[in-house]
Amino acid sequence: MKKHMAWLEPIYKQLEISIQEHQTAHAFLIKGQKGVGKNNLAMQLANGFLGEAVTKLTKNEDDEVIIPDCKLVSPDEGKETISIDQIRSLKSFLLLTSLKGHGKVGVINPADSMTYPAANSLLKILEEPPEDTLLILLTDSINKLPSTIISRVQIINVENPTKDQTLKWLNNSNETDNWSEIINIFGCRPILLDKLGHAYLSERIESVSNELNRLLTKKIKPSQLANSWKPEELEINLRLLYYWFSEFLYHYLLETDNHESMPESLYELLGMDINLEESFNLLNEIASIRQLKINGKSLNWGLHITNLLSPIYSNMKGLQSFESRT
């Protein structure tokens, strides 16, 4: 692993002896948010089962096994799903004699990307697992998998690390970066934050803050802003919008003074009388659209984002009550 992940250790310690002795369940389902270390825990489990150092769970350009006795199954390049042929190939791999004599491990990541036929094929493997094998499935959400598969695996929940653990892990790379605000916005998902990078996330925060200021001061229309957002940045932009609008409602309701993280133009609107029901409906709509993007839905994002931003345009038009709070 790149760096020690202290929050994973209690999980592995509970399984360490039994997995080394091949006395555990024949299949694990590791569940947790993206970027909390599920892949790293899978490597630890594979290490213990095979009795050797598995440093990567990947495959080369020819889909050949890089690590003896350990095979990763993931969507092929350019694909979003795992096919039935890939699961059949995994079964054939598991049936082969172990090269090192310590069994075989198959890792499916993300497990929820399996097609329906692929999931049914995997079910047959789970019902009659080859001898001395371990299957490790990874997913962000258990609700995306068939109940028939869930009932045949041992579920391992990977909780997000604390903010202190996240800061310590991130600061091992660069102690000069201030990750605190980024963690507050994007959550305690150190691997994901490290992958995206401090510079990129800081740029996104500044850029979207400026765009929101321009929207609120009528210097840009909702349709213009929506069409300027790149598809690959849409999830991050919506996360920022959700965070700032949540902060706005929090400070509005409690009338607090500490609101440095909000864009300036949004802060200036705290004195207005807001329609709270419509405001919370907007917050839910931001979350819903972001979830659709996470789930890979193919939609007219420009139209959806335009409709989403319209109530915020021109001093929260459509969210105001008739009277000012001041």
Describe the fold and architecture.
With 326 residues, the protein is an alpha/beta fold. 49% of the residues lie in helices and 8% in strands. The protein contains 15 helices and five strands. A five-stranded parallel sheet has the order 2-3-4-1-5, with helices on both faces. Helix 10 packs across helix 14 and helix 11 (234-254) packs antiparallel against helix 13. The longest helix is centred in the C-terminal third of the chain and has 21 residues, at 234-254. The protein is elongated. The model is unreliable at 58-65 and 322-326 (pLDDT under 50).
Number of strands: 5
Q: SSE string, helix = H, strand = E?
A: HEHEHEHEHEHHHHHHHHHH
Tally of helical runs: 15
Biggest sheet features: 5 strands, parallel
Contiguous uncertain segments of 5+ residues: 58-65, 322-326
Task: Note the overall shape.
Answer: elongated
List keywords for this structure.
326 residues; alpha/beta; single chain; 15 helices
In summary, what is this structure?
This protein has 326 residues and is of the alpha/beta class. It has helices spanning 9-20, 38-50, 84-95, 116-127, 147-150, 163-171, 180-186, 190-196, 198-216, 222-228, 234-254, 264-267, 276-294, 301-309, 313-316; strands at residues 27-31, 70-73, 104-108, 133-139, 154-157.
Topology (elements, then pairings):
Blueprint: H1 9-20, E1 27-31, H2 38-50, E2 70-73, H3 84-95, E3 104-108, H4 116-127, E4 133-139, H5 147-150, E5 154-157, H6 163-171, H7 180-186, H8 190-196, H9 198-216, H10 222-228, H11 234-254, H12 264-267, H13 276-294, H14 301-309, H15 313-316
Parallel strand pairs: 1-4, 1-5, 2-3, 3-4
